[in-house]
Structure formats: C-alpha cells, structure tokens
Amino acid sequence: MAKSPKKEIAPLDGVGDGSRHVLVMAEEARRMGDWEEAARGYREYLAQKSDPSVMNNLGAVLLAQSRFAEAEQVLAQAYNRTADPDIGANLAVAYWFQGKKEAACLLVFSLQENSLAAGALESLGPMRFQCRRDR
C-alpha cells in the first residue's frame, strides 16, 4: 500500500518549516503561560528572521516576567522598525514599570495622535489617565 504524501505547511514569509515550527511552539507556550519556553522560542525564531511582530510577542512575554529592561530593548528595536501602535503600547508599559514615566507618557501622547491606535490605547487602561493627569 502506497503512503499518502505529507501535507506541507506553507512557510511564513519565506521562513522554512523549522522556523515555522519554532514559532508555532512559542505561540503555544505563550498561550499556556509558559513564559520561559515562549521567550526561548521567539528568540530562536528571531535569530533566523527579524520580524517586528514576533519581537512584540517576545517583548510582551518579557513584560509578563517583569523583565522590563529586556522588554524595553526588544520593543524599542521593533518600534523603530515599524511604528505599530500595539508595539508602542507595550513599549510604554516597559517604560512605566521601570519608573520612566515621562518617556511612557510621551509615547502615550504620540499614540493618541494616531487614529489607528484606539485598541492599543485602550489596553493601557489607567496608565493613560495617569499620564493625562500628570500633564
């Protein structure tokens, strides 16, 4: 009896199957709350392909681990490559929890000027209002 051929999964933006598998495993680890495994997977993926959205996911995982300085570094790199409001919001959180309130608020104010940033701003909750109050 002939074996049926394996169904191939299309690579993500030219990334090979091995990298795709690493990314899928990192996403699953993040969903399960396994921050260390998620961070390891994201770093492994990023060693092969620089992707701001994956950098944002790594930054979010680092924030969840209270590794704010590391998160700031990763998120700042991602935000410099693409001014995505979600990345900006996560970067503002990294600043805030390191006591860099002025930098956080400046970023929040710049996001408020972006009509596409409503969802990202909503995720900032009370920090957004604290910035406004301290102005």
Q: What about the largest sheet?
A: none
Helix content: over 70%
Low-confidence stretches: 1-15
Question: Cα-atom Rg, whole angstroms?
Answer: 18 Å
- Going by helix content, strand content and strand pairing, the class is mainly alpha
Count of distinct strands: 0
Q: How many separate helices?
A: 8
- Mean pLDDT, nearest integer? 85
Order of helices and strands: HHHHHHHH
The end-to-end span amounts to 74 Å
Describe the protein's architecture and organization.
This protein is mostly helical and 135 residues long. It has helices at residues 17-31, 35-48, 52-64, 68-81, 85-97, 101-112, 118-124, 126-134. α3 runs parallel beside α5 and α4 runs antiparallel to α5 (85-97). The termini are far apart. The relative contact order is 0.09.
